[in-house]
Amino acid sequence: NAPLSAAVESDVVGYTTITTNVGFNMVGIVFNGLEGQTATLNEILLGDFQDGDVVQVYSDNGEYTPYSYWKDFGGWLDGEYNPASIKLPLGTALWLQTPNRSTEVTLKGAVLSGEYKYQCKTGLQMISFGVPKALNLNTDITWQGLKDGDVLQVHQPNGDYLPFSYWKDFGGWLDGEYNLATITIPVGSSVWLQTTSTNASFTVKGSSK
User: pLDDT per residue over 114-123, tens digit each?
Assistant: First the structure.
């Protein structure tokens, strides 16, 4: 997991490096900005990007805001080719497209202390877990308010999705053969969650300074 060091005032800061797959990747923002500020796209997402790489930031209404990378113009640009000013709060989910190669990408910033809690929406949503560590779907994440038959899908390197279904009386998330899921969600990933509940949420423990 992310190497950590005591740095900017009260912040515990760190970074984690992920390796993209060729094409589309589901990424989650797992750091805050420093000194209580929310980080911008160009501050928090670093790597050996090439011209034409694309980020699509997911919003609560199910739509995406696209940004493209152009080195000679300062990095990530918005749809009008201005430097991206969007701020990415902890837990933001996004697509990162590196069309013709895999590459190493670094996420960096302040580590959350305490707990990360997310209030789910009804229906299909793209979610991230807000902490810079790999998480077991059943043992490292506290789920509340889910309904039997809710579905979670994990994006695979070949572009397919690995589905899991929720059944409370059988221990939580189950794989396709109805065994208790043992999958670990990689650090810096996001996933798809579909729930019929109006009050579902999850909590993940962050850093204890």
Answer: 899 999 999 9
Cα 121 to Cα 39, 66, 128, 141, distances in angstroms: 24, 22, 13, 17
Which stretch of DSSP H or E encloses residue 19? strand 12-19
Question: Please, how many CA atoms are within 13 Å of residue 42, restricted to the half-sphere of its CB?
Answer: 15
Distance of CA 116 to the CA centre of its chain: 13
41: three-class secondary structure by DSSP: helix
- The pLDDT tens digits of the residues spanning 19-76 come to 999 999 999 999 988 877 888 999 999 999 999 999 999 998 889 999 999 999 999 9
Q: H or E segment at 44?
A: helix 41-44
- 36's CB contacts (< 8 A; 6+ apart) are none
Q: Are 130 and 91 in contact (CB under 8 A)?
A: yes
The SS3 call for residue 43 is helix
Report which of 203, 55, 48, 74 is spatially closest to residue 129, judged by C-alpha positions: 203
Q: Token pair 């959350």 is at which residue?
A: 112
112 to each of 38, 109, 131, 143, 176, how far by Cα in Å? 12, 9, 7, 19, 33
Location of structure tokens 């202390």:
113
Q: Which two tokens stand for residue 59?
A: 């919003």
pTM: predicted TM-score of the whole model, two decimal places: 0.90
